[in-house]
Each structure stands twice: as C-alpha cells, then as structure tokens.
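Researcher: I've been going back and forth with a colleague about how LPXTG-motif cell wall anchor domain-containing protein might be arranged in three dimensions. Neither of us has a model we trust, so I'd like an independent prediction. The organism is Flavobacterium humidisoli, in case that matters for your notes. Sequence below.
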Amino acid sequence: MDINWSLIAIVAVLVIILVVLTIRKNQREKKKLENLLNNDFKKAEKDRVDADDSANEK
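Model: Here is an independent structure prediction for LPXTG-motif cell wall anchor domain-containing protein. You can compare it with whatever you and your colleague have in mind.
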C-alpha cells in the first residue's frame, strides 16, 4: 500500500490555513468585545446642579 504524500500535504496545508484564519478571527472578535465592554457604561446625568457640589469654586 503506497502512501499518497501529496494528498497528506494538501490536507495538512488546508488544516494549517483553517487554524490560522480561526485564530485571526477570534482575535478580531476579542478586540471588538473588549472595546464594547470598555465603552458600554452609562454616564450619570445630573438633573440639577448644586452650587455646593461644584469643586470649591468660591
């Protein structure tokens, strides 16, 4: 039984390409998620401004 090395090489190259593309996509998604989580906070809105709350501007 003869081993078809060219077929094994083609399959190995395709598997390596698949792994590299999966890792790159995962890194992009991780970066998007990190940016979303870092920028997804609600800023507190003050309805009225108190003169006493200002930073000692007297």
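Researcher: What would you highlight for our discussion?
Model: I'd start with this: The chain has a mean pLDDT of 84. After that, consider the following. Residues 5-39 form the longest helix (35 residues).
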